[in-house]
Design a protein that fits this description.
Shape: elongated
Number of strands: 13
Number of helices: 8
Structural class: alpha+beta
Radius of gyration: 25 Å
Order of helices and strands: HEEHHEEEEEEEEEEHEHHHH
Distance between the termini: 30 Å
Length: 365
């Protein structure tokens, strides 16, 4: 890859470095969000790591080196939802659990990350799963928390015109549930006096209320339990007895499903396992390659490792690592001066292999 784009990037980094440094704002990993053309994974069990040829793997963002390669060698498939837009969000969510604070409200809204991830709990049970909620052949993405009997969903997304869009936007007091009857349950509360439980239907990309039961302790008629098909706390809601309310709530809750997808931690662990197996595979194959093919072999691994580091490291760590990477690129290209093409690629391959070993240290922090 030419040095000129990186000169531009280096200048940009210099300008950023000249700004105030005492309060660095978190920066979400900049991951490509264009939807892939590869075959959509049909079941969550397909997340297991498998071995394929390089020609079957989705094209990934590159930091340095040729953009395309026809080289055939065995590599390990990294965890993926089958949609690049969803993969990008998953990696943002992982970054958020590792590096954000409870007061990062604006960041989460801007990046469409569930609010419940603001607490930086990397050991949480938050997971994701793809489900075709409206049976239109396209999978929605759900972010949920695995519990003993059910799985509250805190966010759900769909893709429109290649862009990620909110479907469900929940929180700690606004939880959604996938029901066995095809409906979507919702439980919410705004304090001791107000609570609601409702079911929704999702069809044709539209979420519509099916029915709603709620409590309201300050209505003047003295009754605290209500039913509506219009909305929560509707003024013309029908008063019902406490027994009717409790029975309806029990009937809705018995349909809640316990989801079985992949945790954010498992995604991260499998990605790390996959990159280590990528390195092992490349080492086994490099003796059968020469020149440009050898360089492309190691450059492919470097780019995958760089993608992982972008959602594992903090903003400050990634900025420093990027500056170091630019220096390394200059050293690598300088080392190939006054050499023929074949020897130049051999030198770049050796530099890239060594750089991968250095970057692996960051995964062990």
């Amino acid at each position: 890859m030419d040095k000129y784009p990186f000169c531009i990037l280096l200048c940009t980094l210099f300008l950023v470095g000249c700004s105030k440094t005492e309060s660095v704002q978190p920066t979400i990993p900049d991951v490509t969000v264009a939807e892939t053309s590869e075959t959509t994974i049909q079941a969550e069990s397909s997340y297991t790591i498998a071995v394929e040829t390089a020609a079957t793997i989705e094209s990934e963002e590159t930091f340095d080196g040729p953009e395309n390669s026809d080289l055939q060698f065995e590599i390990v498939v990294h965890p993926s939802t089958g949609y690049a837009v969803y993969d990008a969000l998953i990696e943002k969510c992982i970054w958020a659990t590792l590096h954000t604070a409870p007061d990062d409200f604006d960041l989460f809204e801007k990046e469409q990350i569930p609010d419940v991830l603001r607490y930086g709990d990397s050991d949480s049970s938050f997971s994701f799963i793809r489900m075709d909620l409206d049976d239109d052949g396209d999978n929605e993405l759900l972010i949920y928390q695995k519990q003993i009997d059910d799985s509250p969903v805190y966010a759900a997304y769909s893709i429109e015109n290649g862009q990620l869009v909110w479907l469900l936007k929940g929180g700690e007091r606004n939880r959604y549930y996938i029901c066995s009857d095809g409906k979507i349950g919702n439980e919410g509360s705004s304090g001791a006096m107000y609570s609601t439980i409702a079911t929704y239907c999702y069809s044709g990309g539209v979420l519509s209320l099916n029915e709603c039961y709620f409590t309201d302790d300050i209505r003047e008629n003295g009754n605290h339990w209500f039913y509506s098909q219009i909305g929560s706390y509707s003024p013309d809601a029908k008063p019902i007895s406490e027994e009717e309310f409790n029975s309806a709530v029990a009937n809705i809750r018995k349909n809640y499903l316990s989801l079985d997808g992949m945790s954010l931690n498992t995604y991260m662990e499998q990605d790390e396992q996959a990159i280590r197996l990528d390195i092992q595979t490349a080492a086994q194959n490099e003796n059968q390659t020469h020149g440009e093919e050898k360089y492309e072999l190691w450059d492919t691994v470097l780019n995958r490792l760089w993608r992982i580091l972008k959602y594992r490291l903090s903003t400050e760590e990634m900025a420093q690592l990027t500056r170091e990477q630019l220096i390394w690129i200059n050293q690598k290209e300088t080392a190939t001066q006054n050499t023929n093409s074949e020897d130049g690629f051999e030198i770049q391959a050796a530099y890239t292999k060594d750089r991968i070993s250095e970057l692996l240290i960051y995964l062990n922090k």
